[in-house]
Each structure stands twice: as structure tokens, then as C-alpha cells.
Amino acid sequence: MKRINFSSGAPLEELVGYSRMVKVGEHIYIGGTTAVLPDGTVHGDTALEQADYIFRKFINLLNEAGANPSDVIKIKAYVTDMSFAKEVGEAYSPYFKDVRPLFTMVETPKLNRPSQMVEIELEAFITDEN
User: Fold this and answer.
1) Helix (H) or strand (E) holding 54
2) DSSP secondary structure, 9-29, as one string
3) Distance (Å, rounded) from C-alpha 30 to C-alpha 41?
4) What is the value of pTM for the model shown?
5) Per-residue confidence of the chain (130 residues) as pLDDT tens digits?
6) Phi/psi zone of residue 116: left (φ > 0), alpha (ψ -120 to 50 degrees), beta?
7) Backbone dihedral region for residue 7 (phi beyond 0: left; psi -120 to 50: alpha; all else: beta)
8) Contact 53, 117 (CB under 8 A)
């Protein structure tokens, strides 16, 4: 199976040596993604704003890989406070409610920057049912 690495242009990707998304055959994996903008600032002052930004970024990445939301099979969200769960769920629903992938949300003590409230990972598998 062919492997394709995708970058989102974040400075750390090149510096550290990681990809935002990897496609292997029909499998797509998007690594932990936060609402960090290219200039290093964080988009959004609420968990809802940050999660929505991340989910929109996922949709763009999936399209780049030839996939769409209906191909998503698993999402894992990390929040710095479980009180953010409702907001993350609100951001999630417009994109994935009808798809109904696996969805796990866990609390973590902190993320890379104090202003980050949410980090999300995604897995997809491209099917012929698109």
C-alpha cells in the first residue's frame, strides 16, 4: 500500500519531523490537532470555537486525501476540563452526527499551550459508499 504524508504547514511539523495526516492505502490518520494558527496563536477563546476550528480543518484535510466525513470511523478528543465536553459535542455534531463514528473524549491536565482547551485525533477509511 502506498503511503502519503500531508502537512498543514505548522512550523513544528518540519522542525520536529511529523505529518498532520498520513494516508496508507484507504486508511487516513490525522494526528492530534489543536486550534493553533500558522503564526502560533490559538484560534478561539472557548472550547466550542477551538473544536469547530479543528473539525473544519479535518474536513479540509479529508477532502485533500480524497475522503469525506462519511469515511470517518473514529475520533478521540482530549480536553483540559470535562466541563468542555458539551461544547466539543456541539462543534462535532454538524459534521459527524449522522455518520456516528466512534467518539471518545478524555480529560488531560494540560496541552502544549495554556490557551489550548481541546486536541482531537481522527481516523477514516475510504469506502466505495461515498
Assistant:
1) helix 47-64
2) --HHIIIII--SEEEETTEEE
3) 21
4) 0.92
5) 899 999 877 777 888 889 899 999 999 999 999 998 878 889 999 999 999 999 999 999 999 999 999 999 999 999 999 999 999 999 999 999 999 999 999 999 999 899 999 999 999 999 876 5
6) beta
7) beta
8) no
